Amino acid sequence: MFIFIQDIQKVFFLLLLLVIIGEFFSAPAITLADSAVITLLGEDADRYGHQRMFGSLGWGLAMFFVGIALDHSTSFPEHPCGPDDKEKNYTICFATFSVLMGAALITATQITFKYDFPPEPEPSTQEKQPPELSHEDTMQQQLAQQLNLPQLADTNSLPLPAKPPPPQLQVRITFLNFHITAVIL
C-alpha cells in the first residue's frame, strides 16, 4: 500500500509540473489575441466589446454541445473489465478540442501585423572636416616625418571614421490605447 501512495504522489507532481509549464507558455495567448483583435479593428476599436462577446458566446455554446455529447457518449464496451454505468468516453472532448485548435491555428496564420520601421537616415552631403591638431600632436607628427617613422605618429588622438549604426527594427504594438514601441538591435 505504501508503494501505491508513492506512485500516486509521483504522478501528481509530474502532472503538476506539466500544468505549470503549460500555463506558463499559454498565459500570454489571451493578451496576444486581444492585441491582434484591436490591431485588426483599427479605427473601429470601439467594436472590441462585440468581438469579446461573440468569443465568449461561441465558447459557451461549444461547451454546452460538447457536454451534451459527453452525456450521451458510451463507455468503452470492449474494455476487458466491462463497461460501467458512470464511465464516460472523453474522446469526444479531445476530438472537439483538436478540431477547434486546428481552426484557431489556421485563423491565426492569416493575421497580418503592421510594423513601423524607422526612416532611413539621409547621407550627409558635407564631409566632416578633421578637427585641428593640438600643438603636441603636430610636433609628434613632424618628428615622425623627420625620422621617417610613420608608426611614431600618434593616431589615437585622431578621430576614427564613424561606423554606421547597426540596423534597428522598431515594432509598435497597440493594446487598449497604450502604445508600446520596442527597438530591436
What does this molecule look like?
This protein has 185 residues and is mainly alpha-helical. It has a domain at 2-115. The protein is built from 5 helices and 2 strands; from the N terminus they run αααααββ. It has a two-stranded antiparallel sheet. A hairpin with a 2-residue loop joins strand 1 (169-175) and strand 2 (178-184). The longest helix is centred in the N-terminal third of the chain and has 25 residues, at 2-26. 0% of the residues are buried. The model has no long low-confidence stretch (mean pLDDT 76).
How far is it from the N-terminal to the C-terminal residue, by CA?
A: 59 Å
- Major sheet: arrangement of strands: 1-2
The count of DSSP E runs of length 2 or more, i.e. the number of strands, is 2
Describe the oligomeric state of these chains in a short phrase: single chain
Uncertain residue segments: none
Helix content: 40-55%
Query: What sequence of helices (H) and strands (E) makes up the elements?
Result: HHHHHEE
Average pLDDT, all residues: 76
Q: If you compute it from the alpha carbons, what radius of gyration comes out, rounded to the nearest whole angstrom?
A: 34 Å
User: Largest sheet, if any?
Assistant: 2 strands, antiparallel
Portion of residues in beta strands equals 5-15%
Shape: elongated
Structural class determined from secondary elements: mainly alpha
Task: Specify the number of helices.
Answer: 5
List the helices and strands and how they pair.
Elements: H1 2-26, H2 28-41, H3 48-71, H4 91-108, H5 135-146, E1 169-175, E2 178-184
Antiparallel strand pairs: 1-2
